[in-house]
Amino acid sequence: MLSSDTFVDFDHSLSMAVMNLRDALGDSSDTPLYIETIPKRGYRFIAPVTFLSLAPAESPIPHRWWKLTAALLLIGAVWRVVGGLWPNRKL
Predict the structure, then answer these.
(1) How far is it, in rounded angstroms, from Cα 11 to Cα 4?
(2) Terminal CA-to-CA distance of the chain, rounded, Å?
(3) Is the CA virtual torsion 6, 12, 15, 16 positive or negative?
(4) Distance between CA atoms of residues 48 and 52, nearest Å
């Protein structure tokens, strides 16, 4: 919690954060590659953005095993329901 005598200089903090980002990226304010300074407005990200297609990860279990497992579960469920409908007969 901030007390009433605490002062936070947001503009200075933002400038320092952008400076640290530029340093980490090897960027400069004179010839920007990633972060452009817009006077009296702020900053803009200018690097080209490429979207990668995320191919679905290959399942560790082949599709035929999924189908077989689903079929067995379905048969078991039907067996349980049908078995519950028939009265128990003692011979």
Answers:
(1) 19
(2) 79
(3) negative
(4) 13
The CA distance from 29 to 49, in Å, is 20
Q: How many CB atoms lie within 10 A of CB 69?
A: 11
pLDDT digits (tens, 9 = 90+) for 66-77: 677 777 788 777
Q: From the CB of residue 19, how many other CB atoms can be counted at a distance below 10 Å?
A: 13
SS3 per residue for 55-85: CCCCCCCCHHHHHHHHHHHHHHHHHHHHHHH
Global confidence as pTM: 0.49
Placement of tokens 């689903």 in the chain? 70
The string of pLDDT tens digits covering residues 41-82 is 889 999 998 887 777 766 666 666 667 777 778 877 776 766
Whole-number Å distance between alpha carbons of 27 and 35: 8
